[in-house]
């Protein structure tokens, strides 16, 4: 029994090629696989490219004799300079492989707003595996540098090259670029403060339904089949906008909601405040948003979502911008008839929509105009969270196919609208259906990025003639469009950086292009300062009380002049 482990090792090694019995080739194989994986994680590069890249690396290593005994010198125990640059590249590869597009604004904002109560437990497992594989890569690279003197000689140049080419480090230069930009307030000059000049005599209610990651790109049947068909059915009696693109700082949930409700990109507060890595006490306090405008018109406003409102500052945003009730996982989960029917983020959408109907009934009984904003979860990357009602309708879910979840989300929202209509809850109500942002990396990623992508945006209302509008716009144009669809008259058909798509006026995307807008966001701070004007840094620990000093009050006698010294006895 004592010799069983060595015997098993010897037997296993007999089945391996002689070259792979050496530590050298195991180390080179790990480096080659990581190099192949890093290249395969880039957009427009197929996953199978990992294999030829790794094989090519091993062939070059064999030809050059990397790590071979003939090129070894006495090993040095110094740590390679490239370890930190390699780790930074590993972080970038993880973000690119997980989300498809690395958005530094999203990283900074979530660090500021807090990631408490997040879902997606599979992301944590993936991050752990990435970390372990990165540690193995760094160990193998350290071995190669220490054992091959040629790598020791050129490794410092490699460290510089890795730092210079890492896209993550471009964000560090954002502040410097803003300082040297000749015109650092172009975006801020384009901003038009949202103002309602006139309101209709009988203002309509508003139901705003955000569909997590359900972009309009899925409507292409040639690539995605009938996954989007239920929304296409709704679109036959709605105003449907084709061409609502995504610009910088609008590509995650909070950024998408702020873009469509405030008419601005979500430029994180970091670098402007000492509180950049502390939980935010307010979210974009310097601008008025949809909730502020409707609250000033005596609307009763509610927000509902299956996920926690503590994640990414959702609750802070809605409470500070006019909403009376903010209901998330913490408030809704105790109301479940089946407590265990939740996912890692929170409530499934069939349950959430049941609660949505109940909330609209409550708002109707209360009287007066109301507004309700709702955020789904079914389409959340990477695989979605299809509800039980969908599984009963669509069959077994393989846990990977995002198109299954897209169809589920589309079907659930169509069923919700039809149910509300049947119960008479949509009279004098504008229904807005929109994706919060384009989806991140999913199983259909290669098909999604094969062409132009746009967001879902459609309006259903009693006074709206169904038709399709071809536009060149962004989600920032949703705010003024919704206001005009509700019958409000706004200044110059504009609000924030948005232009009403019902007005015929050119949008900023149409006039200047997305590249110009994105470049301005990277280089300017004036609009960023406007968004966060009034944000107070977090309060530090209370100052300890100072010891009380006894105050002595002199009497008139005490104030008598002292006798000269010579007069004293």
TrEMBL record:
GO terms for cellular component: plasma membrane. It is a multi-pass membrane protein. Residues 525-569 are annotated as: Disordered. Residues 267-487 form the Sulfatase N-terminal domain. GO terms for molecular function: phosphatidylglycerol-membrane-oligosaccharide glycerophosphotransferase activity. Pfam families: Sulfatase. It comes from the Bacteria. Its EC number is 2.7.8.20. The chain crosses the membrane at residues 23-42, 48-65, 86-111, 123-145, 157-173. Coiled coil: none annotated. Keywords: Cell membrane, Membrane, Transferase, Transmembrane, Transmembrane helix. The keyword Kinase does not apply. It comes from Halomonas fontilapidosi. Residues 538-547 have a biased composition (Pro residues). This is Phosphoglycerol transferase. It is found in: Cell membrane. InterPro entries: Alkaline_phosphatase_core_sf (IPR017850), OpgB/LTA_synthase_biosynth (IPR050448), Sulfatase_N (IPR000917).
């Amino acid at each position: 029994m004592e010799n069983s482990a060595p015997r098993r090792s010897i037997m296993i090694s007999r089945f391996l090629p002689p070259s792979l019995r050496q530590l050298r080739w195991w180390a080179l194989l790990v480096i080659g696989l990581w190099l192949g994986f890093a290249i395969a994680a880039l957009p427009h590069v197929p996953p199978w490219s990992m294999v030829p890249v790794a094989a090519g690396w091993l062939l070059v290593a064999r030809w050059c004799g990397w790590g071979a005994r003939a090129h070894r010198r006495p090993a040095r125990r110094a740590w390679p300079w490239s370890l930190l640059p390699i780790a930074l590249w590993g972080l970038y590869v993880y973000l690119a492989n997980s989300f498809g597009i690395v958005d530094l604004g999203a990283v900074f904002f979530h660090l500021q707003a807090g990631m408490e109560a997040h879902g997606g437990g599979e992301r944590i497992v993936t991050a752990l595996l990435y970390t372990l594989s990165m540690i193995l890569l760094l160990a193998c690279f350290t071995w190669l540098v220490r054992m091959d003197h040629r790598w020791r000689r050129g490794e410092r140049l490699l460290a510089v090259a890795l730092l210079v080419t890492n896209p993550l480090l471009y964000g560090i230069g954002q502040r410097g670029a803003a300082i040297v930009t000749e015109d650092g307030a172009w975006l801020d000059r384009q901003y038009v403060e949202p103002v309602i000049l006139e309101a209709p005599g009988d203002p309509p209610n508003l139901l705003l339904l955000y569909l997590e990651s359900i972009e309009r790109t899925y409507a292409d049947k040639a690539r995605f089949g009938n996954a989007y068909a239920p929304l296409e059915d709704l679109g036959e009696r709605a105003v449907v906008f084709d061409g609502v693109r995504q610009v910088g700082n609008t590509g995650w949930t909070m950024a998408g909601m702020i873009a469509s409700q405030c008419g601005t990109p979500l430029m994180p507060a970091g670098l402007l405040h000492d509180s950049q890595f502390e939980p935010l006490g307010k979210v974009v306090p310097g601008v008025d948003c949809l909730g502020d405008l409707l609250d000033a018109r005596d609307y009763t406003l509610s927000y509902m979502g299956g996920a926690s409102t503590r994640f990414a500052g959702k609750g802070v945003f809605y409470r500070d911008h006019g909403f009376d009730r903010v209901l998330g996982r913490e408030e809704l989960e105790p109301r479940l008839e089946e407590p265990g029917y939740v996912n890692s983020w929170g409530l499934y959408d069939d349950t959430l929509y049941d609660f949505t109907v109940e909330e609209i009934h409550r708002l109707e009984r209360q009287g007066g105009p109301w507004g309700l904003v709702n955020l789904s979860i079914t389409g959340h990357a990477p695989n979605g969270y299809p509800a039980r009602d969908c599984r009963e309708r669509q069959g077994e879910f393989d846990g990977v196919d995002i198109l299954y979840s897209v169809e589920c989300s589309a079907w659930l929202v169509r069923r919700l609208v039809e149910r509300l209509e049947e119960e008479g809850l949509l009279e004098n109500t504008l229904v807005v259906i929109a994706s919060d942002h384009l989806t991140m990396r999913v199983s259909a990623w290669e098909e999604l990025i094969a062409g132009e992508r746009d967001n879902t945006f459609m309006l259903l209302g009693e006074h709206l003639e169904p038709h399709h509008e071809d536009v060149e716009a962004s989600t920032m144009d949703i705010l003024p469009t919704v206001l005009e669809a509700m019958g409000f008259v706004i200044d110059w058909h504009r609000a924030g950086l948005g232009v009403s798509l019902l007005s015929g006026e050119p949008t900023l995307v149409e006039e200047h292009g997305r590249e110009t807008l994105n470049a301005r966001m990277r280089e300017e701070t004036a609009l960023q300062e406007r968004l966060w004007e009034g944000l107070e840094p977090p309060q530090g620990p209370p100052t300890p009380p100072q010891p009380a000093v006894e105050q002595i009050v002199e009497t008139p006698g005490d104030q008598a002049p002292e006798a000269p010294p010579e007069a004293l006895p």
